[in-house]
Batch of 3 targets.
Target 1
Amino acid sequence: MTTRLRLQELLGPILIVIAFSYVVGLQSAQGLLIVQSTLALFVMVLALHVFVGNSGVLSFGHGAFAMFGAFASGIVTTPSNIKENSLQLQNLYPFLVNLNLGMYPSLLLAIAAGALVAGLSGLLLMRLNGLAAGIATFALLGVAYNIFFYNNRIGPGSQALLALPPFQFLEEPVVLTVIVMLAVYLFGISRAGRTLRATREDPLAAPALGISITRVRWIAFTLSGAIAGLGGAMFAHVAGTVQVQDYYLPYTFMTLSMLIIGGSASLWGATVGTLLVTGIGQILLMMEQQKPILGIVVHIPNGTRAIVIALSLVVMLLWRSEGVTQGREFKIGMPKLRK
Amino acid sequence: MIQAILDAVSLGGVYALAALGLGLVFGVMRLVNFAHAELITVASYTLVMTHQFPLVVSIVLSVVAASLMALLMELLAYRRLRGSNPATMLIVSFGVSVLLQKVYELVFGALPRSASVATGLTGAFTVGGVSITIASVVTIVLAVVILLAMGYLIERTKLGLQLRAAASDFQTARLLGVRSNRLIASAFVISGALAAVVAFVNVVGNPQVDPRFGLDITILALVGIVVGGMNSLRGSALGGFIVGAVLSLLNVILGNGRVYAYSWMFVIVIVILLVRPGGILSKFATKERV
C-alpha cells in the first residue's frame, strides 16, 4: 500500500476482477453463479482489508456486520405476502412484515446497518489493543450469531429467509465491487488511511506524533463495517436466501484466509487471495466431479476436496507467511518475488 | 442451588484446563492454537472407540493420541512459522483445525459416534436432602488435581521455570540457554495431555462425539485466556475458569432467557476487557517500552 494515487495500483486489480467476471461469468449459468458469489465474498475480503490490513489488528467480528447487512437487506426485500404466510416468520415484528424496499435501497440499508453496528461496537472495541482486540471482536460475532439464531421477532431465527430477489445481471455485482474497490483504495491513500498504517507500523511512535490510535481505528472499523454489511447483503442476494449459519465461523475463516493468503496489507493482496482460493476450490470441485481441466480428467475421491483446500491454505502460508503478494500493490512488470 | 454452584465450579474447572493448554502454547510461541479443538476431539474419539477396554487404558490411549497429535502439529506446521506475525499463525491454526475436522469426517463420518464411557460417573447421590450429580464432583476433583499438578510443574520444576521464562520473554530465555525446540515441543505435549483431560470430562457428560466436538469449548477457552491475561499461565487458567463458571451460572439465572446466555457472557467479557485491557491479571502500569 502506498501513499499516493498510482493509477496502475488501482486499475490493475479492477481490470483483473472485471476480466475474471466476464471470462468466467459468460461461460455458463454455473460460471455466473461462481462469479457472483466470488464477488460477494471479495467485497467482504475488502472490508476486512480496510480494517485488518491497515490497522494490523485481526477482526473476527466482521461476520456480525455481514449478518446485520444480510438480514436488514433480506427482511425488507422478502415480499410481504411471503412474510405473512411463512411459518418461520410468524413472530416477526408487524412493521417489518409491511416494510418493502427494492434491491438497491435495501443494499443502502445494509451498508447503514453494518456501519451503525460497527460504529457503536467500535466505540468500545477500538480501545483494546493487540491480539486481545482481535479476540474480543470474536465476542461480537458470538453475540450477533446468538441473537439472530434465537430471536424470531427480527428474522427467521435458525431457519432460512427464502425468496430474496437475486441479482438479475452480471453487471450489478461487478459495478458494486468496483465501487467498493475504489473506496477502499481511496481510503488507503487518504490521511486517515495513512495515519492508521503509521499506528500499525509503530504503535508507540504514532501517538507521539499526535495520532489517536483509537480514533483512526474507529474510522476504519466503521468504514469496513459498512462494506461488510454490503458484502453480506450481496452474498444473500446471490444465493436468494439468508441463514444465520451462513455468516458464522466458516464464512469468517474463509474470508480471513483469502485476505491473509493474498497478503492483508494491499488491495492487490485481497484480490489475489480471493481469486486464488476460489480458483483452487473450483479446480478441486471439477476434479471431484470428474470434469476435464484443460482436457485432462484428474479424479479425486469425494470428500477429499475440503481436505486439499485446507491443506493448501496451510502450505501456502508456510511457504510465504506474509501472503502471496507480501502486501505489495499491483505493479506492471511486477513479480520481483525474491530480493 | 448447591448443584448450580457445583456445576459452575466444575464447568469453570474444565474451561480452566482448556485455557491452560492454550495458554502454555501461546506463552512459548505467541501462537493462539485454534486447532486445540481437534486435540480435544481426537482424544474424545479415542475414548469412544476404545470404550471396550478398561477405563485406565482408554484414558492413557487418549492422552497419547492427543499429545502425539499436538507434537505433529508442531513439527509439521507451526515450527516453520516461529516468529511470524501472530495473525498469520492464527490463520494457519484455523487451517490445521479445518483440515483435521475434515480428516475426522473422512475417518469417523460426519455423524456423532457415541459409546458410554465411564458409566459409573453418571447418576447422582443425595447429601442432606440435596441431590448432587457424581459427574460434577468428579470433574471438580479432577480439575483441582490437574491444576495443582500443573501448578507444581510450572512453579517448582525446571521445565516450569523455563516455560514461565519463555512466556515472559522468549528471546532472553533462549539467550540464557533454554532449548527452544525441546521446550516448545514439551509445551505442545502438555497441552495435548490437558486436552485429553478436557475430552474425558466432556465425553462423560456428552458421549456424542462428532468432528466439531472440541470447537465450542476451545472458542470459549480462547476468550478465557484473553479475559484472564494472555501473558501469564495463571491468568489463562483463571480466565478460563471465569468464562466457564459465568456461562454455567447464566444458564441457571436466565431461566427461559438462557438461549441468550452466550450474548450476556460475551457482553461481560467485553466489559472486563474495557476495564482491564490486558486481562484481569495484567499489571496496570506495564506498558511496552521502546
Note: The beta strands of chain B are 113-114, 124-127, 130-133, 208-209.
Target 2
Amino acid sequence: MPLTKEELKVKILEKAMNAPKPQLYVKDFYKCDPETKPRAIKNAANELVKEGKMTFWSSGSTTMYAAKGRAKDEESGEGIN
Amino acid sequence: MPKHDTPLLDELESGPWPSFVSDLKRQAETKPECWDILGQLELSYKDKITHWKHGGIVGVFGYGGGIVGRYSDVPAQFPGVEHFHTVRVNQPSSKYYTTENLRAIMDLWEKHGSGMTNMHGSTGDMILLGTRTENLEPFFWDLTHKLDQDLGGSGSNLRTPACCLGQSRCEWACYDTQEACHHLTMHYQDEIHRPAFPYKFKFKFSGCPNDCVASIARSDLAVIGTWRDDIRIDQASVKEYVAGNIPANGGAYKGGDWPAFDIKDEVLDLCPTDCMWMEGDELKIDNSECTRCMHCINVMPRALRPGTDMGASICVGAKAPILDGAQFATLVVPFMKISKDNDFEELIDFIEQVWDWWMEVGKNRERVGETMQRIGLPTFLSVMEIEPLPQHVKEPRSNPYVFWKEEEVPGGWERDVAEFRKRNAM
C-alpha cells in the first residue's frame, strides 16, 4: 500500500538530509516509496520546499532538491559542495 | 566614462552591423553595472574562458523556475555583476504586445534590473538579464500585481509553451494555436512554475506544416496543424498563376535571374511524393499520397488551400544537441482534433500519458526523445496504447522497428521444422 502524503514527506526529507550527495534529482526520491507514482512524489517534494524544509537548486536547465542548508549556495558560499 | 579598457570588444563595433557593445555602452550611462559586463566579457575574451557561474538557489517564493541564478567568478574585479540573475517572463501567445505593455515591462526592468533584455529566448520568453537576489521579490510583486504577468519556465519544469500567429493572421492555421497555447499554459501552471520531470519539457504549437515556431525541431511535444481531406483547389486561380497574372510565392520568384513562372519547374517537379500533375490546364492532386509539405500551397496560395477537416499531427521527442545530438520529433499521432470545445481533452490525455511514462523510466537529464530512442519506439507506442501505423515507419523494410510480439503470432515462436518443410520444400 502506498505511503500517505505525510509519511512520504518524512521519508523524502530523511533522504534529503542523509544522502551523501547534498543535491538530489526528483528521481532519487522515487525509491522512498516504490508504490507511489512519480507525480505524487514530485508533489510531496515540492510541498516540502513550500514549507521551507527543502530548497530547489537550479542550474537553469535542471532542477535539484536539497534539505535546507545543504544546497550549494553561491552567495553565502555555504552548503556541502 | 568607460570603467574598463575593452580593446577586443571595441573591435565588434567596427563592422557594418549594430553592435551589442555599443548598446551596452549606451546602457551603462544610466546603469553603471553594464561597464562591469563589458569588463568581464573582455576578460573572458583574453582568458578564453567564461567568468560566469550559473545556477543556485535563487528564486521567488513558491516558484521553482523562471529565475536562472548567475554570478561572476571575479566579483572583486567586477562588483556590478557579482549577482546577475536572469528572469524569464512568460510571453503572451504569439508574442502580441501593446507598446504600453512593452514600455511598462522595460520600466520595471530599469527599476529592478540592469535594463538589458533578450527578446526573445528560444523558448519564447522575454529574457530580462541581470539583477541582484534582493531585487527578485520586488520585481516579481510588480510584475504579477501591476502588470498581471507571470514568470516562465526553467529548470526541470514544463517550459513556457509557445505558438505561431495561428488563426489571428494566418489563413493556413488548421487550429487555434493561441487558444491551445494559452489553455495549456493555464492548465499546467504547477508544472511551469515548479519542477516536475527528469529534465526540461517543451510544447510548441504550429498551425500548419510550415511550422513557423519550428516545433518539430525544438519541442518535446509538437502540435502541428494538418488536415485529412483534400487540398482545396481553385482552378481559375491556377490558370492565373500559370499565365503569370498572379505572382507566385507572394512575389518571391521574381527579379534577379528568375525566369517566368513555370508550374512544372516550381511546383509539380518539386512535389516530394510526385502526387501532382496537369491534365490540360487543370491541376490534379492524388491527395492520398500528399505528405503535407506545404510547398504547392506556399507557391500558389490563391489557388490552393488546406482541406477543411482540420486538426493536428502530434510529434514527440525533438531536442537540441546538449547531451546526445540534435534530433527531430517522431510522428506519433498522425491526426488529432484540437478543439477548445472539449477543453483540449484528447491532447491533455495524450500529454499526461507521455509524462507518466517518461517520469517513470526517463533517466536524470534525459529528454523524452532520448528516452524513446533508448527504450525503442515499439515500447513507447505500446505504452501509449497506439497501434503501429505506416506513418510511424520512416523507411519500410530498411528500418523495421515495429516488431511482432510472440502472443500476436499464431503458434508463437515455436516451429516444427519438419512440418514446415512438408509445405515449403527446400
Note: DSSP finds 15 helices and 15 strands in chain B.
Target 3
Amino acid sequence: MSCVDTISNYAFRSIGIGERLLPRTDITVCDQVVLIGSGMLWNIYFGFLAILAGFFTAQAVALAKASPSPFARKPAEWFIFVFRGSPLFIQFFFAYFLFLSLKKAVPGLDNLTDAWLGAGIVLWLNTTAYSAEIFYGALMAIPKGDLEAADAYGFTGFKRFRRIVWPTMLRLAWPAYTNEAIFIFHSTTLVFFSGFPALKQQGDALYYASYFADKTFNPFIPYPILAGYFVLVTLCIITIFSLVGKRLNRHLPQARVKRPKFSAQVFR
Amino acid sequence: MAFYTSFGTVLLLLAITAPLALGFGFFAAAGSRSHIPPLKWLSNIYMAIVRGVPDIAFFLFFVIALDQGFEWMRHQVLCSDWDQPIRQGNDFIVCAAAKLPNNSAPEIIHQIYGFALAVLTFAIVFGAFAGNVLAGAFRAVPHSQIETAEAYGMTKRQTFWRIMVPQMWTYALPGLSNLWMVLIKATPLLFLLGVEDIVYWARELGGTKTARFTDYPHGDWRMYYFFGLLVFYLLFTKVSEAVLSRITRNLSHGQATAAGEKMRKAGAKA
C-alpha cells in the first residue's frame, strides 16, 4: 500500500471517516505519521474549544474573585481552589463517573459521557480556573496611576472597566496566559487516557501513538512523531498569541514593553 | 489495605523524585550557562524538548525506552556470543541473562524495578522544568553581584559557587514551589507507568463486585473512591501551600528583594 493510499484511508480516521480497521501488520512510518496526525485533530479541537470558551468565563470568574461582595467572591475562590488544587487526571475520572450517574438519573443527557462533550466541559472548567487566577493576578497588578487617571477624566462604571481596566488587565496577563494556553493544549492528551473511552478507536494523537508503540513494541518511532506534531502546533500557538500580545502593547514605546509585575503562573 | 499503602507509594515517589529532579535541573541550568558549547546546546535542547511536549507522552515513552535501553546495555555486556538480531520484526529479544529484572526474581523486585523506572522518568521530565526555573533564577541574580565578585578577583568557578548559587535560591523559590504543585498533580499518572498507586486501587476496589467473587459485594463505587482521591489531593495542596509560604518567608529574610525589604521595615516598626 503506497503512502497516498494511506493518506486517503486514514487522514480522517480519528473522526470516523475512512478505513475501519487500524493497520495491524507491516506498519510503515507513513501509517504512523498519517494516523497520529489524524489524531491531532482531536487535540486541536479540544484545545481550541477550551481556550476559546475559557477565555470568556475566566474573566468573569476573575472579576467575581475581585468583587467586594462575599456572595460572588467565595464561590469563585472555591471554584479556583478545587480546580487548581486537584490533578486534571482525577478531575477527568471523577467527572466521567459523575456524568455516568447523571445520565442515568436525567434523561436527555446522553452525550455527556462522550469525549467530545464531557471531556470538553472538564477541560473548559479547568482552564477557566487556571486562567481566572492569572487574570485575577493581573487585575491586582494594574498600576494605581492608570485608575486615578481614569477617575480624573470622569470614567465611571462599565465604561471605566471597558476602556481602562480591561485592556490593561489583558496586557499584563498575556505572557502568563500564553503559557496556560500551551499547557491546556498539552493536557488534551489526557482525555482518552482517563475515564473517557475512545469509541470505535477514534482517539487523539497520543492514543494512536501508544497504539503503535504497543503493536510494534518500539517506542522510538511513534513518540518522536507525536512530539514533532506537538512542537509544531505549540509554535503556532506561540505565534498567534504573540501577535495578539503585540497588538495589546502597540501603544507603548516599543523599547520598554511592560512586563507583568506579579509572579506569572509559568507552570501548572 | 493495599489501597492505604499506595498513598505511601505516592508520598515516597514525591520524596525521592523532588531532590532528584532538582539535581537534574541544577545540572541543566548550570550547563546552559556553561562556556563549553556542546554542554550548553545539550542542556538547552533537553529543556526545550521536554517542555514542548506533553508530559504523559514522555511518561509513556520513557518507561519502555529506559527498560529497553537498560536491557540492551546488559545484553551487549553479558551476551557477547548472541548472534541473532535484537529486533525481530515486532519483538524485542535479548538473551535471558540480560532480562531486567530476572524472570525468576520475586514479585517485590519487579515492583521495585517498576517504581525505580517511574522515579527516573519523573525526574527526567521535571528536571527539565526545574532547570528552566533555575536558569531564570541565575539570570535574576543582580549583575552587580557578579561584577563585585570579579573585582575581588574570584575565578568564574568561585563566582558561580560562592555568589550565584547561594543567592539564586530566593529567586528560584516561587517557580520551584509552583513546580512542586505540578509534581503533586502529576502523580496520579503513575498508574500509567504500571505502578500500583492510588488511582490503580481506586479503579480496582471501586469496580463492581459480585457476591460470587468477593466477600463484599457492592455496585460501582468508583465515584466515591475518586471523590476520596480528590479530597486527598486538595488537602495535600493546602498543606503544601502553608509550608511553602513559610519557607518563602524564611528565605527572603535579609535578601535585597521587595519581600526582604518589607520584612526589614516591619521589623523596624515593631
Note: Confidence is low (pLDDT under 50) at residues 260-268 of chain A.
